[in-house]
Design brief:
The complex is a heterotetramer. Chain B is an all-alpha fold. In chain B, 74% of the residues lie in helices and 0% in strands. Chain B has three domains: 30 residues; 252 residues, ABC transporter involved in vitamin B12 uptake, BtuC; 103 residues, no CATH class. In chain C, a hairpin with a 2-residue loop joins β9 and β10. Classes of the chains: A mainly alpha, B mainly alpha, C alpha/beta, D alpha/beta. The interface between A and D is large, with 44 and 39 residues.
Chain lengths: 316, 431, 288, 381
């Protein structure tokens, strides 16, 4: 136990925890969306995320920004970021659609029991991972240092860097966009309808297949953006990088209340904070243990997550 | 709407009837023939390490060693089947119990463990089973009130917690692990030890015997009030409780029994390895156990055993691609296609697209081996067959899920199983 | 204390034993309250589903619980069977308060129910469905079953199977015993639910719209079944929309509207009751 | 209509089958036995798939290069390198070891790669008398087991830890040192030795996890401890990320000293050349002398990538066996004797083993990362 250290560095730990949590949150959206509509855990989502991290790198290399090149001008950085985000989001989205098409839709057609979806997703996850390993190697692949971290301001003695601001702000922004998409647009209404009552929605003329594909796509897009932020923050990725972050993101989704978009954000940020504070207290070796124990404790008191399942169709 | 549903149901029943014919045929055989066949099959299993049959034998690794691993997977699948298949509780952290069993034997039995109790193997095994059972109950206690998907992530977390605790605890040997795990007692005729590090065959026979016992115990449970309660909970927990099933207690039992079997198999694994460290217990392995259960047919013990054989054996067999494997691949492809076409005819009519798609799939499957064999030329050292086996395994998981979602031997068991029993029961009921 | 081998039960609370086929003894003193509901109140958030409802169910009667949609009939069932614990008020069964007992404990006390939307264990056979109910009073657990050593295990298995077969026979679907519940025809699924409930050896049987979705012929035979159950000593609480069915079979009727009891009495009285007529305004008899 | 379609798809299938049968036949046969002494193989035992695959492939490639070069010179009697994928985990190790023993054409093993799998497999090899030369298993316990077949061309952690401590104390004269390890057997062993040797100079320590990517809490710890040097016991992926994140968080001046698990181009790949600049690693390996000058180029040419950690050591390990085979030692027993008495300059060091199987040359060198390159610095002992 190291309480003094936690107290002394509380602000610093919180800031870094939030940045990490924002990335969890964005990846968690993919789990939450698919779960909301299909009541299934998409185990291949972690590889959808990894797709984005590789797409970012390939984009940067494609436009000639190598890993050790000096940081270009601000305008260039912004343009590059936007481009990379678009490419990463699209490729993650495409892979998510592909996974849905190959590993989910045939099973839905056959009315397979839910567990089978899990196994087919595990299969898809293995295949994607090994394909990346085959084409991009099994070692770390590096991204350029696109944004040099520079302290913008300090809060209670903690340096807040431009990169951390960018990460948290974009994550929250993406959340807001997604949230309003789901609640305002016609397509979003379809998603909500299917998640609340698939049969009734089908009777009302909602194309279920299209809605399901849409949720996979949306989850993929978010994972793609998360991947860009991840690359920015850590600078490297790896064919197997998805497993851990997928696990954490899934934990975050459950923590906030799976199926609940805002819950994913809250869960992600809380998990990031809890991990950092817990690590400060007990040592980094216990990081994942802390995350899971935190989850178990929260679920014991709130069995459907902090915010509950949003579209609240209680299943009796 | 109803018309459509009826058509679907009809098609489903027809398919079920077709799928059930081997079982009918089996049940229709005279009892001595069935018994004889079973004994012959058992003898074949026992003799496998000695026979080393040509195509079955793995060329890239020791066949007997693989057989033992397959056996351990079978045990795990049987244990997990109680939790997932019968009681319907999604447990993604089964490796945790496996690890608890393995570590119990190591910690209590190894002369190099910090505890230095050095209990003999025969004492360690019950301890391992007991500790895993208790750990199952401890995990179940606070979490079994959670609903399915929440339970899934909590159990997944449990698996990681066990592994990380082992990594970070000096008593458990930390990352360095614990060597000199005790081995089962027993001597050969010439006085040398039966269970050695070099010859795995006795271990294989031991695990075979344990599988037999666990299948027997599992069957007993299934055919009792406990089994009915579990299935009732799986089907509809609320109603089960309203019909007088103390659901929480039985769920806890399911967890504890599953954990006990997991612990037992972990203990066996540890004694065969003679050394364990946390690397042997990654949480991903839980997913492999689950894959075994689901691929085989959740709820059916023979199904899950078959699933375990596939999950544990396939990646090992795929270490090298040889002629025997190619022959098997093409023969089973042709047979599979033929069976599929036959089954199709009994279902609702298909459009031309179905056959086109089928042709494409068959073409891809047929072209797979030459593509794989050409890989090294394209990708250099990254494309060696050995490095592709998880890619192939992943593909196999998808293909099996898509084409056989109900599992290889689905759990439509009861209808058939009960047909036999009905004969003896019904007269009894009226007397 | 080692339990003696279960004797062949005799009364309706311990209905006919294994294969005895003995006639079931009618309850000696009909009229004594079996279940007393006093000021039962249930609120969900801001909605009051039941508001100070009180009524008794007497031994050996068929009590009808009717009311328009949303009147709180099923909620009342849920309160009695422990699905939704009451916000206020008490439910007393055989003189003891149910309090906050768990669902399975209430079942063991002798209250069984069926469901408005059929809820069987779809992948189990009909016989097994009923056996789950018959197991309610059994005590074999994992240790006994896994080694098949305890005599209790065998005795209970035998009793369980016998009771289950008898109950299937009772509702008239013996020939369906070994079919998967999901594949049974609709009417037989309804009967199977009743058999499963009977197998828990209840004193009070709660039937939630047992005739919903049935055709007239099925309804008639169902009525026959319910009456015969009453005659053999069960107390029955019956919910239904169908006024004709309720009027024809019940001994007394309680009418709910918007969570309040608006009337209670003999069928003939209820038919004339202006409040009931108003509640069912414009709803002709017999519409489901 | 219907029959034609079935026929058509069947035809497609038939063509595919024929095509495959045509080209599939000649491949995949087991290594055939040649004459008396030809057709021998060396086994590689280590990871080819999974998370540890990268290190395993580095090693198998190094060995492969040695074998290929040998075969180029001895085309009439080539040696095969058979790879046995353990995934770096002890699980499959016994079965693989068993298989290697059964294949009598295999006369020696390069590996096992890691300490964990060594602890499982080595007793089995020992029983069967298969000579082992590991290029990477550094656990000190391995040479204390009285296994007669065990050898390694790298120094054990027991040598490296004190050397790193000495370097930090005497050369860097650091007064405040922060020690991090990755909870692996290797990293923890080194970190523990260091903590014991440096005593009061250690102002704090932390344990991270293998595969971790976010080190923010550790970074905060290191920064707030006021240390001028931090030591990392573990492998390059975590070391690189930790270095990068510390630099990003303003800890640029805190010098990283680490171990030979970090002496890899992958470290620069993870940390970036800028953050990696100045990092010191210890390695019980002598800088390659001029004789081995073409190794890096040959490796690059053969595998289209730069040699990684232990690639060169693997080359040496394989060379020990290949020299033996060239000298006519074609049985396991002969080759074992050969290995025990081997004494030759390899590309990484002078290869000679003590009776326990440790490499005799225990000199530890420090290396410094400069402009993304690993530059030899000085010997420590």
């Amino acid at each position: 136990m190291n309480i003094d250290f936690l107290i002394d560095n509380f602000a610093d730990l919180s800031v870094t925890g939030l940045a990490q949590g924002a990335i969890y949150a964005l990846v968690a959206l993919g789990y939450t969306l698919v779960y909301g509509v299909l009541r299934l855990i998409n185990f291949a989502h972690s590889e959808v995320f990894v797709t984005g991290t590789f797409a970012t790198i390939l984009t940067l290399r494609g436009i000639g920004i190598g890993p050790d090149d000096p940081v270009p001008s601000l305008l260039m950085v912004l343009l590059t970021l936007v481009l990379a985000s678009i490419v990463a989001a699209l490729s993650s989205g495409a892979v998510a659609l592909l996974v849905e098409r190959v590993a989910y839709r045939p099973l839905r057609r056959r009315n397979a029991p839910p567990l089978v979806f899990l196994i087919s997703a595990v299969g898809a996850s293995l295949v994607l991972m090994e394909i990346y390993a085959l084409f991009l190697g099994r070692d770390n692949v590096r991204v350029g240092n696109l944004i040099k971290p520079r302290t913008q301001f300090t809060v209670f003695g903690a340096d807040v860097t431009n990169r951390q601001i960018l990460i948290v702000v974009s994550a929250v922004l993406m959340m807001v966009v997604l949230d309003s998409f789901i609640s305002r647009t016609r397509l979003g209404r379809g998603v909500r309808a299917v998640s609340q009552n698939p049969d009734a929605a089908a009777l009302m003329g909602v194309n279920k297949d299209r809605v399901i594909a849409l949720t996979f796509l949306l989850g993929g897009l978010m994972a793609g953006v998360a991947a860009v932020l991840y690359d920015l923050n850590f600078g490297v990725t790896k064919f197997s990088a998805g497993f851990l972050i997928g696990l954490k993101a899934f934990t975050a989704a459950v923590l906030g209340g799976i199926g609940n978009l805002r819950g994913a954000l809250l869960g992600g940020l809380l998990l990031g904070l809890a991990e950092n504070w817990g690590q400060a207290l007990l040592g980094s070796a216990w990081r994942d243990v802390i995350a899971f124990v935190f989850l178990i404790v929260v679920l014991m008191f709130r069995p459907t997550g902090i915010l509950g399942e949003s579209l609240g169709r209680a299943r009796v | 709407m109803t018309g459509f549903v009826d058509r679907l149901r009809l098609a489903d029943e027809q398919r079920a009837a077709f799928a059930a014919w081997p079982r009918r045929w089996w049940a229709g055989l005279p009892r001595p023939v069935r018994l004889g066949a079973l004994v012959a099959f058992a003898a074949f299993l026992v003799a496998l390490p000695i026979l080393q049959p040509p195509v079955l034998t793995t060329t890239g690794t020791d066949f007997t060693g693989v057989l033992f691993t397959v056996g351990v997977y079978c045990l795990c699948a049987l244990g997990l089947n109680i939790v997932v298949g019968l009681a319907g509780l999604l447990d993604l952290g089964y490796i945790g119990f496996f690890a608890v069993g393995a570590y119990s034997v190591a910690v209590f039995g190894s002369p190099q463990s910090k505890l230095a109790t050095e209990y003999p193997w025969l004492v360690c095994i019950p301890i391992a089973i007991a500790i895993s059972m208790v750990s199952g109950a401890i995990l179940g206690g606070p979490t079994l009130r959670l609903r399915g998907d929440y339970l899934a992530i909590v159990t997944l977390g449990f698996g990681e917690i066990v592994r990380l605790t082992a990594v970070n605890s000096e008593v458990l040997g930390a990352a360095a692990g614990i060597p000199e795990v005790p081995r089962p007692p027993g001597e050969r005729a010439d006085g040398t030890r039966l269970f050695t590090i070099v010859d795995v065959t006795p271990f294989y026979w031991l695990v075979l015997a344990l599988i037999f016992l666990v299948v027997l115990a599992g069957a007993n449970l299934e055919r009792s009030r406990v089994g009915r309660a579990w299935v009732a909970i799986r089907e509809d927990e609320d109603v089960a409780q309203l019909m007088g099933v103390p659901t929480f207690r039985f769920k806890l039992w399911a967890f504890a029994m599953g954990a006990a079997v997991g612990g037992l198999s972990g203990a066996l694994f540890a004694s065969r390895q003679t050394f364990i460290n946390p690397e042997s217990f990654p949480v991903q392995t839980s997913l492999m156990f689950l894959a075994a259960v689901v691929i085989g047919g959740a709820g059916n013990k023979f199904g899950v055993v078959l699933g375990a054989v596939i999950v544990a054996y396939l990646p090992e067999r795929l270490r090298s691609i040889d002629d025997g494997l190619l022959v098997v691949w093409y023969v089973s492809l042709v047979l599979g296609l033929a069976t599929y076409l036959l089954l199709r005819r009994r279902g609702p009519r298909d459009g031309p697209r179905t056959y086109l798609r089928l042709g494409v799939v068959a073409g891809i499957l047929a072209a797979l081996p030459p593509l794989l064999l050409a890989m090294p030329e394209v990708f250099g050292s990254r494309g060696e067959i050995g490095q592709l086996r998880y890619l192939m395994f992943g593909l196999a998981l998808i293909v099996m899920s898509v084409f056989r979602p109900q599992g290889l031997i689905p759990s439509r068991r009861r209808a058939i199983e009960l047909e036999d029993r009905a004969k003896e029961v019904e007269p009894g009921a009226t007397s | 204390m080692p339990r003696p081998e279960r004797p062949a039960p005799t009364g309706p609370e311990r209905p006919a034993g294994p294969g005895s086929g003995a006639p079931i003894r009618p309850t000696p003193d009909p009229g004594e309250p079996l279940l007393q509901i006093v000021d039962l109140t249930l609120r969900f958030g801001g909605v009051t589903a039941l508001d100070r409802v009180s009524f008794d169910i007497r031994r050996g009667e068929i009590l009808g619980l009717i009311g328009p949609n949303g009147a709180g009939k099923t909620t009342c069932f849920n309160a009695i069977t422990g699905v939704c614990p009451p916000t206020a008020g008490t439910i007393r069964f055989r003189g003891t308060s149910l309090g906050r007992r768990k669902k399975h404990q209430i079942t063991r006390l002798g209250i069984a129910r069926t469901f408005q939307n059929i809820r069987l264990f779809p992948e189990m056979t009909a016989l097994e469905n009923v056996m789950v109910g018959a197991d309610a009073h059994h005590r074999t657990s994992v240790p006994g079953a896994i080694f098949r050593l305890s005599p209790r295990h065998f005795a209970e298995e035998r009793v369980c199977r016998a009771i289950a077969m008898e109950m299937l026979d009772r509702v008239g679907i013996t020939e369906r015993a070994h079919q998967i519940a999901r594949n049974l025809p609709y009417g037989d699924q309804r009967r199977l639910e009743i058999a499963r409930a009977l197998a828990t050896r209840p004193a009070l049987l709660c039937l939630d719209e047992p005739a919903a979705g049935s055709n007239p012929a099925e309804k008639a035979s169902l009525l026959e079944l319910i009456r015969s159950l009453r005659d053999s000593g069960y107390t029955i609480l019956l919910i239904d929309h169908d006024m004709k069915l309720v009027m024809g079979v019940t001994d007394r009727i309680v009418v709910l509207e918007f969570g309040r009891k608006i009337a209670e009495g003999l069928p003939a009285e209820i038919r004339e009751n202006p409040a009931v007529v108003a509640a069912y305004l414009g709803v002709p008899d017999g519409s489901a | 209509m219907r029959t034609t379609r079935i026929f058509r798809s069947a035809a497609v299938l038939a063509v595919a089958v024929l095509a495959v049968a045509g080209c599939g036949g000649d491949d995949g046969a087991d290594s055939a036995k040649g004459g008396d002494t030809c057709g021998l193989s060396i086994a590689f035992f280590g990871a080819q798939t999974g998370d540890a695959a990268n290190l395993g492939i580095n090693i198998s490639n190094g060995a492969q290069l040695a074998v290929d070069q040998y075969n180029a010179k001895n085309a009439d009697c080539p040696v095969t390198l058979e790879k046995f994928d353990s995934q770096g985990s002890p699980d499959q190790a016994p079965a693989l070891a068993q298989r290697i023993i059964q294949k009598t054409t295999i006369v020696g093993v390069v590996g096992p790669t890691f300490s964990g799998e060594s602890k499982v497999a080595d007793p089995i090899f020992n029983e069967a008398g298969v000579p082992l030369v590991s290029a990477s298993a550094t656990g000190p316990a391995l040479s204390e087991q009285s296994w007669k077949v065990f050898h390694r061309v790298v120094g054990s952690d027991a040598v490296q830890g004190p050397a790193a401590a000495k370097y930090i104390r005497d050369t860097l004269k650091a007064e405040k040192v922060f020690v991090v390890d990755d909870a692996s057997e290797y990293g923890k062993e080194l970190a523990d030795i260091l903590k014991a040797e440096l005593g009061d100079a250690v102002v704090g320590s932390d344990t991270v996890q293998v595969k971790q990517t976010d080190f923010s809490a550790t970074v905060t710890r290191i920064k707030s401890s006021g240390a001028t040097v931090f030591y990392f016991g573990g492998y390059y992926p975590e070391a690189g990320l930790l270095r990068k994140q510390l630099t990003d968080a303003g800890g640029k001046d805190i010098l990283l000293v680490s171990d030979d698990g970090v002496r890899d181009a992958g470290y620069v790949e993870a940390a970036g050349a800028e953050a990696a600049e100045g990092t010191v690693v210890t390695c019980p390996c002598v800088p390659p002398d001029k004789a081995s000058g073409t190794f890096a180029a040959d490796y690059q040419k053969a595998f289209n990538t730069a040699p990684g950690t232990y690639s060169a050591e693997a080359y040496d390990a394989a060379t020990v066996f290949l020299d033996g085979i060239a000298a006519g030692k074609t049985t396991r027993a002969d080759l074992l004797t050969w290995v025990k008495s081997y004494n030759k300059q390899g590309i990484t060091k002078k290869v000679q083993f003590d009776p326990k199987g440790d490499v005799a040359d225990k000199t530890v060198w420090t290396y410094v990362f400069k402009n993304g390159e690993i530059v030899p610095d000085q010997p420590v002992q």
